[in-house]
Structure formats: C-alpha cells, structure tokens
Design goal:
With 303 residues, the chain is an alpha/beta fold. The protein has a single domain (7-58, 76-196, 217-302), classed as Aldolase class I (TIM Barrel, Alpha-Beta Barrel). Helix content is 29%, strand content 20%. It is built from nine helices and 18 strands. It has helices spanning 79-85, 87-92, 106-116, 144-154, 172-181, 220-233, 248-257, 267-270, 274-288; strands at residues 7-9, 12-14, 18-20, 43-44, 61-64, 67-70, 97-101, 123-127, 131-132, 138-139, 161-165, 186-189, 193-195, 198-199, 204-205, 212-215, 239-242, 261-264. Strands 3-18-17-12-11-8-7-4 form an eight-stranded parallel sheet. A four-stranded antiparallel sheet has the order 5-6-16-13, with no helix packed on it. A two-stranded antiparallel sheet has the order 1-2. A hairpin with a 2-residue loop joins strand 5 and strand 6. The longest helix has 15 residues, at 274-288. The two termini are 27 Å apart.
Length: 303
C-alpha cells in the first residue's frame, strides 16, 4: 500500500506536503510539461502586487557555486492581470493554487489582498520580506509590528493567510507570534538569506541591484532551525518549511523539524521536475521505513 501523503495546513487540506515555492515556478502552468500539477500539494504563484511592476535592473540572477543569488525585485503583471491570464491555466490543470502578494506599504498589501478576493485559491501567502517605504525601507519581516500590520491588511482577501518570514533577524519567533496574533493561520519559513556576489573582472557587484537573496542547498540548515524553533514555540501552529530542499531525505528532515508541508524552490531551476522527484523520494523513504502517513513524522525530531 502506498503511503498516505495527505496533510493539512490549518483548514487547507492538501493531497501532498510538497508544494512549489513562490518565484520558482512562474505565474501559471509553466511546469506542466514536466509533471502533473494536480499531484502536488499546491502551486504557489510568484508574488504579485496590486499593480504591474518591472522589478530591478539586470542582471537579476547569478550563480554562486551550487547556490543562486537573485535580485529580481518582485517583477510581475499585477494581481488582476494574473487572475485573467495565468490563473485559469493552473485551475484547468487541476492544481491547488496558493496566491502570493507583496507591497511597499500597508495600503499596497491591502490593495493586493482585495484584488485577490474571489480568486479560486486555497490560501494567500503574504510575502513579508519586502522593504517598507514608510519605515526607511526596513524589511516588514524584520519588525513584529510591521508584520502584524500587513497580515491584518491582507485579511481583505477572505482566504486563509500564510505569512512568509525572513531568516535575517534574531527575532523570528517574536515576529511569528505577532503575525499569528494578527490573523495568520500558518507560518512559511523561510525566505532567502542576504548575500552578495562580486564580478572580479569588472570589480563590481554581479547583480544590478548590488546584493540579493541567496538560495540553494546551504539554506536548508537555516530553514530547519527556523522551523524547529517555531515548532517549539507554537506547538499546534501550521508551518510550511522552505529553503534548500533538493531530495526526498531533505523533505523528511523538514517534516521532522516540525513542518506540516514544504515548498521546493531553487532545485526547480536546476531540474524543473524537482518537486515531483522530491515527492517520489519522500514516498520511497516512507515505504522503506514503514511510515504509513506523513503526519506520523511531522515534528518527530522534537521527541
């Protein structure tokens, strides 16, 4: 008998714990040529504002060994254009869809969430790792009060809210607590870590925006620690783990750290089939170890 991969993130029921990560699988059904989107837990769309946004100056992505630095700058067509031009293809594929929004101030999060109202999505991921223009461009996710404000604003969407937090703060648990009190149903842990690459020939930063967000295998221990610490602090809070997952064994570790589900990101750039390969690897590990349900190993590392 095949293991039971079903899980839940709060009130959201998922057929699998393996999701795509925002920004790594496009806006719509771009990955459909590599696997059946309906077999994944959900597709998390690239983060969208209420308006179209061009993003940062190129170059926007650079390799750093087995890792990736990006400074794309949240480019996108805007929520309403996405709903019209991209969401229908995802739904036709039978995918469960998690929307994702961003903004530069609280009002823009309100606008983006309101534009998502009525969309056929199972949840909304609030990308808190954005600069707050009303606070000298400090990142929302580095402040408990600012994070609470954008979560509260995002309730306009009328769907379950997941808040995606940053690892670049020593106050992660306190910020997570503020997000939950403001109405987030789940924590998504974590976003990229801050990084920089230098072009030694031109003697300049390799990215057009200077620094960027580092992702890839090395992020896994950071993400595991964040998930573990938040599971210790919030015993029953739904958690989605993301960062550096590139194998079925990595997925097992994330679940054992306390995640109810997980997102596959940068691995999909190296191999667009990564999410399905990781899901199959998770299933095979469970079969070898006679684990009948994903829920049997969630939080297992906590004893």
């Amino acid at each position: 008998m095949s293991p039971d991969l079903r899980t839940s993130v709060g009130e959201v029921q998922l057929r699998s714990p393996v999701l795509t990560a925002a920004g790594t699988s496009g806006y719509g059904d771009e990955l459909a040529g590599y696997g059946d989107l309906s077999q994944l837990g959900a597709v998390v769309t690239k983060s969208l504002a209420a308006f179209a946004w061009e993003g940062n100056a190129p170059p926007r992505v650079v390799a750093s060994g087995t890792h990736m630095l990006n400074a794309v700058g949240l480019a996108g067509p805007g929520v309403l254009a996405w709903r019209e031009n991209y969401l229908p293809a995802l739904l036709q594929r039978g995918a469960a869809v998690v929307g994702s929004i961003w903004g530069r101030n609280v009002a823009e999060f309100t606008d983006a969430a309101r534009a998502m109202r009525g969309a056929d999505i199972v949840a909304l991921e609030v990308n808190a790792s954005c600069p707050n223009l009303e606070d000298r461009s400090h990142i929302f996710a580095h402040s408990a009060s600012a994070t609470a404000q954008i979560v509260s604003a995002s309730r306009e969407a009328g769907v379950p809210l997941w808040v995606k937090l940053s690892p670049n703060t020593p106050d992660l648990v306190a910020i997570a607590s503020a997000a939950l009190e403001a109405g987030a149903q789940a924590l998504v842990l974590v976003n990229t870590v801050l990084g920089l690459a230098i072009d030694i020939e031109s003697r300049t930063a390799a990215l057009g925006n200077g620094g960027g967000g580092l992702s890839g295998p090395g992020l896994l221990p950071v993400a595991l620690r964040a998930v573990y610490d938040c599971r210790e602090a919030f015993a029953s809070t739904p958690i989605v783990g993301v960062g550096g997952i590139s194998s079925g064994e990595d997925a097992v570790a994330m679940l054992m750290a306390g995640a109810n589900a997980l997102e596959v990101g940068t691995a999909s750039f190296a191999n667009p089939r990564a999410a399905w390969i990781i899901q199959k690897g998770l299933e095979e590990w469970m079969q070898r170890h006679q684990v009948h349900s994903v829920n049997d190993i969630v939080g297992a590392a906590h004893g």
